[in-house]
């Protein structure tokens, strides 16, 4: 089981998206569980403020260390060992290799792994005080080269992408085998009925019943689309980061 704990100033953001489809099913099968904490609940100041001005100048505000330090301490005391992941554009970019590693945590040597807990920390404003990164954060993850208004949506993307790789989470295991990024290729085009929709026809090879030819067509189309839009995937791969 993977336990995803979120820590943010907007815990309500997580309520609805985790109650549908594959994630909902994984939760019902006890493959995953969720807990959401509000950073503001751990503040010790009268106004429950979580941010302050940046030392040395600079626009905007930064999240202060006290509530986040105390929240993480409380969560560790309550749930035991957790891996703290902070979502930031300065982190390692999430890709399918990393997602699969997070989805299949390795048990300690000679031991069994009952539950793996990821504590997903979302920042807002200009980010978090660097002491939080230095002393509490185990991994920093970006979901792409653009700036989000906070880490909550990045956390949700992490949860969604990791959950569907957990064994047993997908109804039809085959859906993992043929999808994009398998063997560093994007997925070939797919069609369903009718074979002729308003004059637009499904490629005849797919209706031929010739499995060998269909397989070759799929590979050719995968290479074609990957070459067109994601040449970088076909380049020799640099070693991917460890989880
Ligand atoms: N927070 C703000 N921008 C982000 C990004 N690109 N990825 C992850 N977390 C973020």
Largest sheet: 5 strands, parallel
User: Using DSSP, what is the number of strands?
Assistant: 9
Task: Point out poorly predicted stretches.
Answer: none
Q: What ligand species are in this complex?
A: adenine
Distance between the termini: 18 Å
Q: What structural category do the secondary elements indicate?
A: alpha/beta
Pattern of helices and strands: EHEEEHEHEHEHHEEHH
How many alpha or pi helices? Answer: 8
Q: Over all CA atoms, what is the radius of gyration?
A: 22 Å
Major β-sheet strand ordering: 2-1-6-5-7
What shape does the CA trace take? elongated
How does this model look, in words?
By secondary structure, the protein is an alpha/beta fold. The protein contains eight helices and nine strands. The protein has helices spanning 21-28, 65-79, 96-103, 130-135, 152-163, 174-177, 211-229, 231-234; strands at 2-8, 32-38, 51-53, 61-63, 83-93, 116-122, 139-142, 196-197, 200-201. The strands form three sheets. The protein has a five-stranded parallel β-sheet, sandwiched between helices. Strand 5 (83-93), helix 3 and strand 6 (116-122) form a beta-alpha-beta unit. Helix 3 (96-103) packs across helix 5. The longest helix is centred in the last third of the chain and has 19 residues, at 211-229. The chain is elongated, with a radius of gyration of 22 Å. It starts with a strand and ends in a 9-residue tail after the last helix. The relative contact order is 0.16. The mean pLDDT is 94. Bound molecules: adenine.
